[in-house]
Amino acid sequence: MAAPLCGSSFAQTARRQCLHHLKQHLSIWPWRCQRPTYCASAQSRAGSASDIKHSAELIDVNPVRGTRDFAPEEYRIRRWLFDEFEAVSRLFGFEQFETPMLESEDLFVRKAGEEITQQLYNFEDKGQRRVALRPELTPSLARLILRKGKALPMPVKWFTVGQCWRYERTTRGRRREHFQWNMDVVGVPGVEAEVELLTAIAMLLQRLGLGPADVAIKVSSRKVLQALLAKYQVPEASFGPVCIVVDKLDKLPAAQVREELGQLQVSPEAIDGILRLTELTSLEEVTALLGSDNEALAELSRLFELAEASGISEFLEFDPSIVRGLAYYTGIVFEGQDRGQQFRALFGGGRYDGLLGTFGGEAQPCAGFGFGDCVILELLQDRGLVPAMPRQVDDFVVAMDASLHGAASSVAQRLRAHGRTVDLALESRKMKWVFKQSERVGAKRLVLVAPDEWAQGKVRVKDLAAREEKDVSLDDLTA
Ligand code: HAM
């Protein structure tokens, strides 16, 4: 039986180290080492790092404006959120795909006056090709669907999580890069597709701890506005640009929206009609305005009926002012908003049956959404719903001296082969550092490879939560 870590044989192994300090850490005394020898050696290490001479002026260490670094502590939170996005998508039977962040500029050039096309990060590459960093994922999805062609069985249910770039004015919740979770259904003309997408969003929100009291999903259909415009004989070609102006209602004063609609040759009566429509709150009121023989109303009624069955209706709110700022939507549109309206939109989506056709391909019914990573994290942080995510490994493996590093490395590999996460100490350091470091890496166990124990085919294992230690044979270590 090997001596305990704080006992004499271990102390001999570590005799060049600060035994006094080691003993404190093996016990539960919250007592700090005052020994000058240990502290002096720690300081000399720190000193040697700062002694490195700087040969040039320090660069600007901040990321480019509107972009973010993800240091490990931030990356853990991002990974957690993306794991939730991916888990929900898989629960709904969606398959993951990915397309390049750099696309041909043509993919994003549309003439309807959308903000997104004015915010392109575009440039000419070294081969004189016009390219752009994608501002959204939907055109790339459409490109991939078209590339796959007829061989692709319908319906397609795909999801992706990817970084998007928009040269936006950076404000709370809006950055120049963000990640979006997208789920899209291609090949299904009915609102069953939209309801499935909305159900996935509701499930994600609930998994994150947000319920209908926190988030409203505002739903409408562009066909409602289309029917109204037809009533006022507004030319069909103006429909896309009119939607983009109406989408600005919550950002611009009504007078400016009126002026912009006027510039699109929309008559003052039609403008009054549009503004009245956006103030309605129920399907009954819209029926009274447009009559009951209306495709948009039939679709919306069916959507709310199906939403009831899938248990998400408490999240949903009919709101005819929702039209969305992207030109390609053709039917149902929706947007997620925190109920307190403190934050920007959490997500948005809808039906875009015409997009594939505008790229020269065979038209296909499509519906989907984009759910950004910025606003949801702001909301979760505000509600205290981001879980603590400390660094964690199963084992911290340490060689007691440099000659045992190979042995420690073999122990680490053995543990990893059994699925345990292992941080292997790459240098022999004082025991004070070993204990501090095992805390810093969030180890559950400290595995010490010491000469006497190693000679007997054993290692010393300390369960850091239970504060129990014992010698364990290599076979038992992974049993
Ligand atoms: P979008 O409304 O432009 O739609 O963006 C979707 C979501 O992405 C927004 O609700 C927001 O969460 C996030 N987002 C957009 N821009 C920024 C930004 N500058 N900073 C931070 N977050 C942002 C689309 O992109 C559509 N392609 C969604 C879609 C997919 N429709 C059908 N399928």
From TrEMBL:
One of its GO terms (biological process) is histidyl-tRNA aminoacylation. It holds the Pfam family tRNA-synt_His. It catalyses: tRNA(His) + L-histidine + ATP = L-histidyl-tRNA(His) + AMP + diphosphate + H(+). Residues 76-387 form the Aminoacyl-transfer RNA synthetases class-II family profile domain. GO terms for cellular component: cytoplasm. Keywords: Aminoacyl-tRNA synthetase, ATP-binding, Ligase, Nucleotide-binding, Protein biosynthesis. The keyword Cytoplasm does not apply. It is an enzyme of class 6 (ligase). L-histidine binds at E136, L137, T138, R166, Q180, D184, R324, Y328, Y329. It comes from the Eukaryota. The keyword Aminoacyl-tRNA synthetase applies. GO terms for molecular function: ATP binding; histidine-tRNA ligase activity. Its EC number is 6.1.1.21. InterPro entries: aa-tRNA-synth_II, aa-tRNA-synth_II/BPL/LPL, Anticodon-bd, Anticodon-bd_dom_sf, His-tRNA-ligase, HisRS-like_core, HisRS/HisZ. Belongs to the class-II aminoacyl-tRNA synthetase family. PANTHER family: HISTIDINE--TRNA LIGASE, MITOCHONDRIAL-RELATED, HISTIDYL-TRNA SYNTHETASE. This is histidine--tRNA ligase. It comes from Symbiochloris irregularis.
